[in-house]
Amino acid sequence: MKILEALLMKDTFLNLMKQRRSIYALGKDVRPTEDEITKLVTEVVKESPSAFNSQTTRIVFAYGDAHDRVWDIVLDELKKVVPEEAFANSKQKIDSQFKAGFGTLLWFTDMSKVKELEDGFPLYADNFYDWSEQHVGNSQFAVWTELAENQIGASVQHYNPLIDNAIKDAFKIPDEWRLRSQMPFGSIEALAGDKDYMADEDRFKVVK
């Protein structure tokens, strides 16, 4: 029996991946403290792979008033571009799905680090920005999954570049940091619905 168990492929990580969903019904009833969440996310991002170990991703943790300010900025900027008759729906969405959460992670790419790599490795210069995007994706996925393991819901939003300048001004963000996404998170007040999948034959190909 022990030999058979040893031969079976492990699926613990796969099951954790299945817990990671876009959660839009967020609340503030989160058990870990802000410090515990900050430490956990910091460690996860540090362990997320990046090309050349370039570590181009930067994170700003927004809690409390800062969290509210992020979504107030989103609303302020949306109000400038969304038709007046549609703005009430936008406000309801922001308030109920994002601002209602416990906090927000702001994801940036340090473009000065990307430039440094481009100059230092000219043979690969055209690839470093793409690789920096991969690092954002790798670290987002890892953090998202780790939050889910701790019964914390999250989603990824992309109000950049609409909010870029206002976010930089509000939180004194370095000019070299380029905003890539926003991850509101909090207690899971309602589960996500069923997830649809494309047919495997349309996505995967085995060659030998």
TrEMBL record:
GO MF terms, alphabetically ordered: oxidoreductase activity
CDD domains: Frm2-like
GO-annotated cellular components: cytoplasm
Keywords: Cytoplasm, Oxidoreductase
Pfam family, one: Nitroreductase
Keyword Glycoprotein: no
Keyword Heme attached: no
GO BP: cellular response to oxidative stress
Location(s) in or outside the cell: Cytoplasm
Main location per the UniProt record: cytoplasm
Protein name (database record): Nitroreductase domain-containing protein
Organism the protein comes from: Furfurilactobacillus siliginis
